């Protein structure tokens, strides 16, 4: 097969497969560092899509084991609201709070996972919808 035919076949395959729709969930800030006695902060979410999107927010304790990230469920830090629906073009604030009464010793590391949830009613045959997961480091230091 010639190079020109290979390119034409690739383009045809892309057209047949359908369009890919980019995700449009944006967050800020991309890291939270809370020092000496600070127990709460916020993260802003924006839906830059033309349709509403559902979002789930979870917090995990974050450690490294043999050089690999390890996420474990925790109740020491919570995010509120844990699930939210963002209207098109809207924004929302997620509050992140350390609820543990135990004093911070050194540094405690967590990951705030913000997931765009799939919506079965928005499925379109031949299209790919890319769902976004933001993984935001959260650190509490003494």
From TrEMBL:
GO biological processes: cell wall organization
Keyword Signal included in the entry's annotation: yes
A Gene Ontology cellular-component term: outer membrane-bounded periplasmic space
Residue span, Pili assembly chaperone N-terminal domain: 25-138
Coiled coil segments of this chain: none
Keywords annotated in UniProt: Cell projection, Cilium, Flagellum, Signal
Name of the protein this chain belongs to: Pili/flagellar assembly PapD-like chaperone
Species in which this protein is naturally found: Hoeflea marina
């Amino acid at each position: 097969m010639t190079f020109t035919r290979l390119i034409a076949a690739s383009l045809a395959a892309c057209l047949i497969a359908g369009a890919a729709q980019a995700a449009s969930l944006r967050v800020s800030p991309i890291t939270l560092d809370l020092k000496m006695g600070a127990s709460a902060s916020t993260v802003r979410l924006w839906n830059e899509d033309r349709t509403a999107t559902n979002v789930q927010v979870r917090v995990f304790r974050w450690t490294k084991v043999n050089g690999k990230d390890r996420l474990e469920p925790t109740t020491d830090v919570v995010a509120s609201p844990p699930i939210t629906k963002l209207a098109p073009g809207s924004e929302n604030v997620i509050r992140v709070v350390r609820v543990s009464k135990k004093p911070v010793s050194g540094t405690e590391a967590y990951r705030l996972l913000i997931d765009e949830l799939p919506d079965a009613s928005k499925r379109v045959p031949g299209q790919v919808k890319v769902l976004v997961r933001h993984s935001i480091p959260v650190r509490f230091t003494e």
